[in-house]
Amino acid sequence: MGIIQQIEGIRNSLGAAGRRGEVLLVPEVVLGLGSVERAAFVARLDFWLERCGHWRDGRRWVYNTLEGWCEDLPWLSLGTLRRVIGALRAMGVVRVARYNRVPTDRTLWYTLDYEVLGEILRGVVAGRAQMEVRNLRRSYQVDTPERDEGGRGHSRVLEDRGAQAAPGDIPDCTSQNGASAK
Length: 182
What we know:
The protein is of the alpha+beta class. It has a single domain (3-133), classed as Winged helix-like DNA-binding domain superfamily/Winged helix DNA-binding domain (Arc Repressor Mutant, subunit A). Helices cover 45% and strands 18% of the residues. It has 6 helices and 6 strands, in the order αααββααββαββ. The strands form 2 sheets. A 4-stranded antiparallel beta sheet has the order 1-2-4-3. The protein has a two-stranded antiparallel sheet with strand order 5-6. Strand 1 and strand 2 form a beta hairpin. Helix 2 (27-33) crosses helix 3 (36-52) and helix 2 packs across helix 6 (114-137). The longest helix has 24 residues, at 114-137. It is elongated, with a radius of gyration of 25 Å.
């Protein structure tokens, strides 16, 4: 798969963003970035990069002030936004620069490093896959009416590795009328 297709896949996984403050978040992005606020900022930055990014140094960049980002993401305070951007910069997901013509203009320019973001998302997906495999391989505890020598009830553990449970070993998960119990 080429880099363009990878970037498009990452962009699709970020979620959709529209009018001011509108953000659709994808759970893998939230997990990978560590917070809803970070994922929301990345989704909005991606939204603006796609619509009005300026090309500098081979990347699309958008410029904005912290107050402007607060207007775009009205549920985030200025302090929270500073922490979010700082954390994303430390992760390498967001890059910040100054491409202003006037030296006294302190407006910052922002871009996403889609390669770093892709690595993070691939790690989340791989981690989820490993967790699912671990869950499949783990031992299942099945309640049985067996009693030990002291008369205490206990559960018997069935290993997933080829152990077959007899029909009476698995608890009945249906009610008396045959409907599933919750």
